[in-house]
Amino acid sequence: MFLGLSLLVVGVVLCLNGVWQFGRIEDREICLINFAAAAVFFAIVLMIALAAQQPADLLDAGMTLLFGTTYLWVGYNRLVPSSGAGLGWFSGFVALTAAPMVLRVLAQADGLFDIWLAACWAAWSGLWFLFFLNLALNRGSSWVTAYATLLCGIFTGWLPGLAVLPGLAG
Known about the structure:
Largest sheet: none
CATH class: Mainly Alpha
């Protein structure tokens, strides 16, 4: 039920975070979209958790919470002087946590949309891993991470969200 909204929010925040990483948006300005996205995801987590009928519902809430926490942390790091290492280590943890979602979604796949969703989990896990490399280990390329963030925003969030919300996909 919340998939279209979640995808749209992921798309908007990732696209803008990619633009920010290219230096086109100031640190103080990027906070707003990250805090707004975090608030949306925390509200979705609460609604999913309250309506949970089975353990899988709580897994969905938990995975959604990882997105919300990520955006909250990005916004926080733009307001408070920080090396970003904490967010980097968190991103490494989340990359490892999100990777098995690829197999879970594929195991339950009921069509092309589910296969696409599994690919999204692989892309998101990879993106979190890039942030781990950049922020926790001071390795990797900030340029590659910026492009990956922008492309993930477009192809795993924004465009699919626009398709799922009116019922064109999903």
